[in-house]
Write a structure and sequence with these properties.
Number of domains: 2
Distance between the termini: 55 Å
CATH topology of the largest domain: TIM Barrel
CATH class of the largest domain: Alpha Beta
Oligomer: single chain
Number of helices: 12
Bound molecules: ligand LLP
Structural class: alpha/beta
CATH superfamily of the largest domain: Alanine racemase
Radius of gyration: 23 Å
Shape: globular
Length: about 400
């Protein structure tokens, strides 16, 4: 083990000493590289890449993606506030999600977002009536549920009949016909999102094929689709997954779209930010239980929910010059739940005081953090070469309790 483990050119030990742990650390270069991979793979199609804010909505991260030319996929009014505050262009924002409130729709309409990805007939009616009241025309795309199995964890699979998302394929034509009769809507697109952490290309391609059949049927009905949106991006390597090749994905999409003049939108989140970030944590104690060993760290399920929620694997490496022997242990946090673990049965060399790096924690880590057990949410740092910036302060107990009252 070496003590020179770095994010870009900054040793993690320096970051831990300056900002404390637990700490999310992101590499700006890795973000650029991830974005360029999409740009290059899909160069022929010149897609609008709408970064999925839910993956990590930190303002500095949004600002950086905006500077690279990204649009944004949002799922709440709060996410739109973030994008605008970060300097993102509302004209490149698409609004997904099954439960948009009237206030959120109004806010998005007033800001002239690019398009609503609509998930039900009731939502079509609601958007139309709000647009009418505001004397606006709302651009809409219909999210179609293509009923393909994305072969991912059931909690993040979204394109099956049983899922709450999208409009069933067989109802799509009726839904578009309804949209066409609503005077304050303008049909602009068609979209789908079949799931996240996809490690197989074929469901994505199958979904696209199914959407294209609908595009042709709609054309026969006189309804012209102006863009197609294939939803989130491909999966990333957490452990040893065989993730799809982006070039192969782009080539397959390009082939299917050739000659169609159908601009493409993509909504990647995880693959733009997931492997750019790590969660840095300090070992508090080593504990030998009767059946198991535990490495007890200062990060917990409230900082990284993925292992508890999806049995997700995150690689962990020791960032300190440790002299400890390797042993098998669960890496756990201080939270009072058996489900509070960051890794199970991991072979690791660690002793109290060591710094551990929980990798691939750029996506769906800080954005899913909670205050469970009255734990303050961790700070976030962005590294660029030899520079590092605090992009989110560690929460304080004062700010955490500021909205509560003890009134009885
Ligand atoms: N578009 C829509 C409509 C989505 O629902 C999502 C993710 C994305 C795009 C971005 O998908 P991505 O490129 O990141 O795969 N918390 C879970 C992931 C939930 C994904 C939800 N939707 C996790 O930690 O694995």
């Amino acid at each position: 083990m070496t003590n020179s483990l770095k994010c870009e050119q900054v040793p993690y030990s320096v970051l831990a000493a300056q900002y404390g742990t637990p700490l999310y650390v992101y590499s700006q270069k890795a973000m650029t590289d991830a974005f360029n991979l999409y740009q290059q793979a899909f160069a022929d199609l010149k897609p609008l890449i709408c970064y999925a804010v839910k993956a990590n909505g930190n303002l500095s991260i949004l600002r950086y993606f905006a500077s690279l030319g990204c649009g944004f996929d949002i799922v709440s009014g709060g996410e739109l506030e973030r994008v605008l505050l970060a300097g993102g262009a509302a004209g490149k924002v698409i609004f997904s999600g099954v439960g948009k409130s009237s206030a959120e729709i109004e806010f998005a309409l007033k800001n002239n977002i690019r398009c609503f990805n609509v998930e039900s007939l009731a939502e079509l009616e609601r958007i139309n009536s709000i647009a009418q009241r505001l004397n606006k025309i709302a651009p809409v795309s219909l999210r179609i549920n293509p009923d393909v199995d994305a072969h991912t964890h059931p909690y993040i699979s979204t394109g099956l009949k049983a899922n709450k998302f999208g409009i069933a394929s067989q109802d799509a034509l009726t839904a578009y016909q309804l949209a066409a009769t609503l005077p304050h809507l303008k049909i602009t697109g068609i979209d789908c999102h079949i799931g996240s952490q996809l490690t197989d290309l074929s469901p994505l391609i199958e979904a696209l094929q199914r959407l294209l059949v609908l595009v042709d049927k709609l054309d026969e009905l006189g309804i012209r689709i102006e863009h197609i949106d294939l939803g989130g991006g491909i999966g990333i390597v957490y452990q040893n997954e065989n993730v799809p090749d982006l070039n192969a994905y782009a080539a397959a999409v390009s082939k299917l779209l050739s000659g169609r003049n159908l601009p493409l939108i993509l909504e990647p989140g995880r693959s733009l930010i997931g492997n750019t970030g790590s969660l840095l944590t300090t070992v508090e104690y080593i504990k030998q239980g009767e059946e198991k060993n535990f490495v007890i760290v200062d990060a917990a399920m409230n900082d990284l929910m993925r292992p508890s929620l999806y049995q997700a694997y995150h690689n962990i490496i020791n960032a300190s010059p440790t002299t400890a022997d390797k042993f098998v242990a669960d890496v756990v946090g201080p939270i009072c739940e058996t489900g509070d673990f960051l890794a199970k049965d991991r072979t690791i060399a660690a002793k109290a005081g060591d710094l551990l790096l929980i990798q691939s924690a750029g996506a769906y880590a800080s954005s899913m953090a909670s205050n469970y057990n009255t734990r303050c949410r961790a700070a976030e740092v962005l590294v660029n070469g030899t520079e590092h910036y605090l992009i989110r302060e560690r929460e304080t107990i004062d700010s955490l309790l500021a909205t509560e009252t003890a009134c009885l």
